[in-house]
C-alpha cells in the first residue's frame, strides 16, 4: 500500500533562517505531488504541485520554493523565513491523472519566532 | 479560476442526529469533488468523493450529493457519533490534467454525546 511521510512534525525557527521540509511517498511511481499551507482555522492553500521530477508549478507568489529531486521526494524550502511563513504545511500525493484522489501526510507545524 | 464556498463554518449536533454540510463551486467544468475529514494535529483524510457523472454516492453513514446545474454538492452524515467530531473540507477539481484541488474553508463539526 502507499504511504506518505513528512518530517519534521513540528519546527520552530527564527526569522531569517533557512527552511527545508521533506516529503516522501512509498508504494507508487510517478505520483503527482503537492504542497499546501493551512493557516489556523482556515482552508488549505495550494502552494506548489509537481507532475514529475524537476517539474514544479507555483500557485502563489511567496517566499518559498519547491523541488523534486527524485520521483517520490518533494522538498519545500526557503532561504530566509518570514513571520508570515508560520503555519501548518501539508504534503499530498495522487496517482497521475486528472480524477485521482489526493492523500495527505500528517503535516509539519512551523512556528517562526 | 475556481472558487469553492462552504457552509456552515461550525455545526453542532446531538449524537444520533444527522449533519449536512454544503458547498458551492464556480467553475462549471469542475469534474471531481472529494470530502476530507481532519482531526486535530493530523492531515486531512479522504472520506468520500464523487465525480461529475454521478448524482449521489453513499458509503455506510456518509453520503454525498451533486447538483451540477446548481453547482453545489453536499455531505450528509447520518446517525452521528462523537468520533465524527472534526473539521470537514470539501474540494473541487477544475477540469485539467494536473489534479489540483480547490478547497472550501472547512466546517467544524461537534457531535455532543
How does this model look, in words?
The complex is a heterodimer of chains A (113) and B (113). Chain A is mainly β and 113 residues long. Chain A has strands at residues 3-7, 10-13, 19-26, 32-38, 44-52, 55-58, 65-70, 73-78, 87-94, 103-104, 108-112. In chain A, strands 2, 4, 5, 6, 9, 10 and 11 form a 7-stranded mixed beta sheet that branches. Chain A has a 4-stranded antiparallel beta sheet with strand order 1-3-8-7, with no helix packed on it. In chain A, 36% of the residues are buried. The mean pLDDT of chain A is 92. By secondary structure, chain B is mostly beta strands. In chain B, 0% of the residues lie in helices and 54% in strands. Chain B contains no helices and 11 strands. In chain B, the strands form 2 sheets. In chain B, strands 2, 4, 5, 9, 10 and 11 form a 6-stranded mixed beta sheet that branches. A 5-stranded antiparallel beta sheet of chain B has the order 1-3-8-7-6, with no helix packed on it. Chain B is globular and about 40 Å long. The interface between A and B is medium-sized, with 29 and 27 residues.
